[in-house]
Amino acid sequence: MALTGSCMCGAIAYKSDSDAAITALCHCIDCQKWTGGAFTSNAVVAEGDFSVTKGIAFNQFSLPGSPKQYDVTGASGKINHHFFCGDCGSSLYTRLDVMPGNIIIKAGGLDNGKASLDNKINVEFYCRDRVSYLQAAEGAKQEHLFG
């Protein structure tokens, strides 16, 4: 089953031809700052199955309706490539140099109620940075750091 999603303003849409191979919550400080929330919820898909269907993918010219990119060095020492809508600011997806060949879709942008990730979280990363008012997701592997 395909996953589809978009930004808040609808300028950018995307799809994955496969379901998430991994569903994950990340509590790292970078993800907290990236979203303005306590964590990110993520659907990890194969890069070859992912495409931007509206807007211009991996654009370097910042045209209206195209994903903008912000790169940051993660705790792993490798680059995290964050993609977001330049018009409304919605977080869309991430490519992590530490996870080559994968796209990490930010689940909040998924269509058809899929933001819940079907209530199945496989793993939580950076649990050491989890805010104190949250508990571990039931059944999810708990990782102190990444991997």
TrEMBL record:
<dbReference type="GO" id="GO:0046872">
    <property type="term" value="F:metal ion binding"/>
</dbReference>
<dbReference type="Pfam" id="PF04828">
    <property type="entry name" value="GFA"/>
</dbReference>
<protein>
    <submittedName>
        <fullName>Uncharacterized protein</fullName>
    </submittedName>
</protein>
<keyword id="KW-0479">Metal-binding</keyword>
<dbReference type="InterPro" id="IPR011057">
    <property type="entry name" value="Mss4-like_sf"/>
</dbReference>
<keyword id="KW-0862">Zinc</keyword>
<keyword id="KW-0456">Lyase</keyword>
<comment type="similarity">
    <text>Belongs to the Gfa family.</text>
</comment>
<dbReference type="InterPro" id="IPR006913">
    <property type="entry name" value="CENP-V/GFA"/>
</dbReference>
<dbReference type="GO" id="GO:0016846">
    <property type="term" value="F:carbon-sulfur lyase activity"/>
</dbReference>
